[in-house]
Input
Amino acid sequence: MQLTNAKNIINVKCDYGTPAVESKKEVSLTIDGQTITAFEGESVMRAALKVGINIPRLCATDSLKPIGGCRLCIVEIEGARITTSCTAIVAEGLVVTTESKEIFKLRKNLLDLYISEHPLECLVCSANGDCDLQALCAQHGVRGSRFLVEKRKPHKPVIDKSAPYFDYESTKCISCYKCVRVCIETQGTFALTVKHRGLHSEVCSGLFDFKNSICVSCGKCVEVCPTASLNEKSMIKMGLPSKQVATTCAYCGVGCGLVVETKMDEVVRITPNANTPSNKNHLCVKGRFAYSYVSHKERITEPLIRESINEPWKKVSFDEAFAFIAKGFNKIKEKYGNDALGSLASSRCTIEEIYTLQKFNRTAFLNNNIDNCARRCHSPTGYGLDQTLGTSSGTQNFDSIEHVDVFLIVGANPTNAHPVVGARLKKRMRVNSVKTVVIDPMETELVSSPLIKADVHLQIKPGTNVAVLNSIAHVLVTQNLVNKKYIKEQLDNTLVKKYMDFIKQDQHSPEHVAKIAGVSSYEIVKAANIYGSSDRSSIFYGLGVTEHAQGSDGVMTLANLAMLTGNLGRNGSGINPLRGQNNVQGACDVGAYPHSTLGYEDVTSQKVADKYSKAWGIEQSTKVGQKMPDMIDSALQGKFKGFFIQGEEIMQSEPDLPRIAKALSKMDLVVQLDLFLNETSAFAHVFLPGSSFLEKNGVFINAERRLSRVRNALKPKVELQEWEIISKIATAMGYDMHYNHPEEILDEMKGLWSDISEVSYDKIDELGGVQWPCNKANPNGSPILHEDKIIREGGGALKICDYQETTSAADVDFPLTLITGRVLVHYNVGTQTRRTKNSDWHDKDELLIHPSDAQPLALKTGDLVRLTSRTNAISIAVKLSKKVKEGTLFTTFHHPDTAINAIQGWDKDKATKCPEFKVTAVKISATDTLSEWQISRNEQVEKQKYFFEASVEELTE
Amino acid sequence: MIKIYVPLDTTSVSLGADEVVEEITLLAKQNNQDIHIIRNGSWGLVWLETLVEVEVNGKRIAYGPIKAKDVAGLFDADFLNAGEHPLKVGDITKVPYLAKQTRLCFQRVGLVDPMEIDDYIKHGGFTALKKALIASPESLIKEIELSGLRGRGGAAFPSYLKLQATKDALADEKFVVCNFDEGDSGTFSDRMMGEGDPFMILEGMFLTALAVGANEGYIYLRSEYPIARKVLNNAINLARKTGWLGKNIQNSGKDFDIHLRIGAGSYVCGEETALLNSLEGKRGTVRVKPPFPVHKGLFGKPTALFNVISLVSMVTIIEHGGKVYGKYGYARSRGTCPFQLSGNIKYGGLVELPFGITVRDIIEHFGGGLEFSFDGGRDLKLVQIGGPLGYHMSKNDLDNPLDYEHFKTLGGHIGHGGIVVMGHDASAKELAHFAFDFCALESCGTCTPCRIGSRRGAEMMEQVISGESVNENIILIKELCDTLTKTSLCALGGITAVPVLSLIKNFPNEFEDRYNKYVRR
Output
């Protein structure tokens, strides 16, 4: 299918029926008189489709192994009997005929058999016009079933409407089993199976309905279903879409390519873009289905202002709002100086928008007080990888997962937080020879799930990453599992000896560390041996490494492992942060950092300041800006008065919420740019309406450093785009800033950041995404970094990071350790996903507790407990689970009414001030009331609701 | 102590062998006779079951068919000393039915105690294996090539090619799988082998393993054979205990072990790829080929998958040499085949003969002629060869020799060697309906023609039976048969047309539209 009807859609890839082969050896064969070449091992079907000969098929698709079930793809091959082209392999000199009277007759008979079992309700069927069976019957002139001599005896229909986003109806199933096969091969959940046999075969979601089965609603089964057996509820309701736009998902850092199908300015369906390499034609429940927040009734589309946070909002025009903001910020500037102002960029926005904001901050506020949410997630990654390897980013692309032999997964739960990468990891892990080591206090799906069993799971005590990773390094060094050649050639040899002396010390021995981390020393040795024994070992890590007091140390110790074994710079080996947000890599890349500008140029350098002074026409400060926690600190001291917050819900995501609340209420002007009024809005003086990703144009940069295009699939609901809003505020404040189109902003960035000098929207379209560095040397981007040599000047640096017990650790008074994280269906603070049907699965945060920890209080699932930390207390319902270890608790931070962050302490990573979210010492007690903070929060919510409703009334009067 | 042989074979047991054993034990005790009952396999002379043999002066004297009520009479006739009795058969090996056969595979079935490994060795067991342990894989495969052995499961694929391909496949692990899912109606040779001489199967698997370089084997046994399961389990345990299975077998440095797995009652699991899926614990659905099991079989590893009779044939071949075995046979069908004779016939049973004998010869010389006793002397009507989806021969076809190629030309197959004789009460229409119905019942559901076509075929045939639109239906059925044959994924759907079309061809008058014929007149 080639779709070229719209200018802004990249050609949707044709489905080649069977998977690509690795071989590049060519054979030539004749298909329908045409001599063609194909790769050795390819199917005849694929070879034919590549030259545009479309062979009918119902059960074949190029993401699945062929099963030869539908038999419609039969072809004649000279010298052989009629055979299916999906299973016939090309060979030199093969002569194939895909269309003949005989083949046509047989195909027609097969279709006749299909419809003899199929309800002929096309006119009122939800797949009408979108049904492969219907199309093939039309193509073959099937006008009814000749073989059906009796009245059709329909099987007892199974109708399952339990899933929030799609329906299942057995009568329309044609037994191609694509749904079952994608669930196994692509998604790896094994939720679907077939029961009974022969004509009674029936697809079923195990023993339960879809909602209650292990199905994760990735929706791939719905997408591949050729009929209406599995169909989106939205398609059933709205019918076929009229417009398609290719764009990029705005949830996690995987950055999946989407094809958004719309009509009447509403989304009808979202499917994966087969052209984008990040997601390999796959999506998750969030990217595919959780889009309804975009048109949620609570969306704010007009600016709101108020003089004080204790009075109702006032709806105003943009111009009024800009004047109000400019006046407020300029007043602060005069009264308290430049340093009293700052902004927080959102890594959910496009790089163009973030660039505009940091430029605004540096030209209108005239300081470097600009930060982004990487501060509280992957800032240690940026710092740690820069210190050791010389680049603040992951070293591989996701495609290289398919070449990894050993996975070291540390503090990451990709199947929940990065589901598409999770599925790709699981697919590789199901290969027998592939080994996996997981270091995580939780039992994640990568430890144990259908056909997945980690070879080693180090279920460590939270906060002991550095000790364990050093111990692995100790084993690698003492057992001589290191790559001596690589160390000699690629590493900074001035540091090697010192590091070796350090790591050989007895304090790093597995026996010693086992006691600290609460794991067995044997397992540590085994993990080291597995990791060190392969030259295709890859590290994937997440916030479980970074959100610690030793977050940067954790990243650097991981980089040490990769450097010691030489597992870097090749396809299948490297070190990869699973970055949390769609554009968090981009936000850091384009300078939303207090210490660096675009491409991580040091702001303290006069040369850099001069460069930007020249480019922007205004003198740049060489003073390092305040990090987000610094801004909060100075606000508490009364020194920070004006804050621009771009799409960040800091009153839910930052630690120690009462402290944040206090800091915000001390500010004179808080300007918020967001989609919805939220917890932070309670402290805002101006609310500016933002646009959702479906209403924007621009670029996201994902965890692989890949620039992907974002295009507006829907008409913007807000008059001004976010980059326009920001530039107009800058102008109102006295710095003239103007752009006509986001590409103008990209062009400006290209001039300032050499690593993207060769990028253009057209190139991104053409390649389906470009990975920086994309410059003169690498005009098509760089999938893998450190290929020839480690980028850091002087070679890779082995950093000495000794383990130190965190001050957040549990003790006698607070005996339990709380970790927070995510579930699959919700994203981050849940602003978006809570406003979709994803809440059907998860409508409140729950505290996972090991049964033996629950026993002293005789707790059972559903009981409310008071969770008290050293700073505060909240109440939360418990759920007994063995996924957590004894002494460890786990909960999510998706729901603001739980306010779990209220009890988290103020401990931070030393280098980057990333908060220690993953270790909070707590105690539990039984309760039946909400905590003080929760009650005051609820009162605040009521008050703000009134303030907003009052503004609506004012306007209608 | 007097040795008495009573078969443990399923056929014998269904005819009361267990009761006969009970009765003999009881009466021997009463008569103070010191006897030892050995449960052997069946000789395959089914009409003589339950056959009781007594060893007198080193010779075995047979009596049969014996029911429990006859046992007292045997004691009265002093059968323990070969006394005369109306049911006395004498030396069983002298019975022409057996004497005329060429028993290579079944040389020990009936003769030996299947529960004793020593008895197997005493009667020449493991001779082939001892040779093979010191021979090269190449020489083993060469012998099989010389013998001309072709797969006895039904597909008749040259066995040496399969061995060679498995041997040549590169892998860290290889498997040998024994297909013991004998599901064809009218076949019982695998079962008799499993119940009567289990060690020969183990030996055959080991030989195969040596030829292809495998260290592990699986027997996939159908659940309907509980006695074979018991006997095979015992055999595997005994072989392990005595060092014929396990590590460093007979100090040869070679390792091989066998696991027994039981099916779940699906006919299509006799198809090799469905069998492998079932063995792996998956649904028993057919896989596409290629890849063939020799390259990607059990658990994705190269697998030599053979039928029971192919495996035991290899034992004979290695023991006596490929040339000796290859001397038997006809055209490209070399060696012997245990044909299984059943149905509406006087002398049913297992007949192991070289290929090339005509169907008529088997029925006349072994089955007791075309006349049969219990249907008023009426004539034979048709013979179905090769299982429930086999070719239906009319009386005119009976002079066809049993030869793979001959049957292929005819439009059928020898399959697993089952010969079912049917009399005049058999209805061609009902049989054709049965073929579709059987396919619909046993279809795995993967491919469309078999999944849906079989049911449509059965429905159309129901109409033919009730006389509705007969001519139209027959035209459609023929077209459906063509689609099934040409487009089915595996042999199940692929050969469903064989019985239907052969019946329509051989008994056209039964598929005529009687009503319309009358009107036309």
